[in-house]
Design brief:
44% of the residues lie in helices and 12% in strands. It is built from twelve helices and eight strands. The longest helix has 17 residues, at 228-244.
Length: 302
Amino acid sequence: MTDVGRLVTAMITPFDAQGEVNYPEAKRLALALVDSGSEGLVVTGTTGETPTLSVEERLRLYSEIKSAVGDRAAVIAGTTDNNTAASIELSRLAEREGADALLLTVPAYNKPTQDGLYQHFKSIAESVHLPCILYNVTSRTSLNMSDETTVRLSGVDNIIGVKEAGSDLDQITRIIRDTPDSFRVWSGNDNETFYIVAAGGFGVVSVASHLVGSQIKAMIGMILEGDIESAAAEHRRMLDIFKILFIVSNPIPVKYCVRRAGFDVGNPRLPLVPPDDATAAKIDAVVSRYNIDLPVPVAGDD
């Protein structure tokens, strides 16, 4: 199966001045993210403002971004919601459009039982031939997928790992301990990457990697090489940028920062809005202290 990589960026979706998806800029941004360390790109995840995207926009994003990055990075399509049948249909379409893997998010709102979660994810995974990554994010869904359910799902052949953003480090440690060695655990929160990788996790699905991707990748490398002291120092150094990107709802801050860095990514779509002046000033004050890894494209490049 496709090697998704340790550093995966949950990619924003660029819009133009009219609020339409800016596909050329999406391709430029994808290439810049790869150049700054990303080995995989989650396309149409939460950070990509997926609830505001049509099915047609989502499918074209998979195709266009995959055509840009080719074999340099995995394109991981966020294709699921709380409708199992619709999730299966979109997952199959994403596979047809060239996605390398799928991100399967815990359903929001209808609150299935743990067995319902198992059946939901098993049904989606078995409907495609792609590797699938589970995504537990209790702050967004108000539902925790237990470690027992994740361990149970690790027995499904093409479910290769989980993005854990539940912030329960004990639960995450049990998942790392109780799943097969081949099952991968990615941190779903930048400020938890150090702890999760140090406990045996695989990597991170990151928002901050839009800005400091090479630095995050270097920190992970330090942990893997056993240089915990240096990795911890890097974690402490980057903590402020990790936190400021969530001063208001993601992806409002990171989209603002990427735009400030020189990419024409536009504003968020309603119901999200750009940061107000006071919030923007707080973001600028923190981000200005860091070197930005994201290479800015030459005007006119595709």
